[in-house]
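sanity check this:
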Amino acid sequence: MPRIATEVVCRVTVSLLFTCWLYSLAFAETVVIRNDAGGNLIDRVATIERYRKSATNVEIRKGYCASACTLFLGLPNVCVEKGARFGFHGPSSAYTGISLPPDKFEYWSRQMALYYPPRIARWFLSSGRFRLVGFYFISGSEMIRQGIPECAPRKGQGV
């Protein structure tokens, strides 16, 4: 194939790939989260990886996002509302009142921190993970100050 034809094919291919990528961003699914208590860590990580792979937009709106829900904060397409509340605690056993052995506590703390943005991960490892009963609650306003993007108002929601 002549060189000019090869260049044209390459440019057209790159252009088509770029167009497909833009199209996927424009029509990416949006998931709105409100009042999510978390749940099983392994299941939540699978959901997060699926959202990451599909470029799903995640909006954490007014209400609460606690426990494993807070791991959504590390997604590239996440935003939060000022009125949302985030509840953090450290990894715990599936059995209420039974602590994890120290090595497991360390391992699961670090696994969780991998899903947070760097500033939140540092706080979680130095403080947040040591709350094993109840939650450390942090406002959406504080998350925005920590660098998480603020969600745009939804249509008909006003300011």
User: Anything to note?
Assistant: The domain at 3-145 is CATH 3.90.226.10 (2-enoyl-CoA Hydratase; Chain A, domain 1). The longest strand covers residues 84-88. Confidence is low (pLDDT under 50) at residues 16-25.
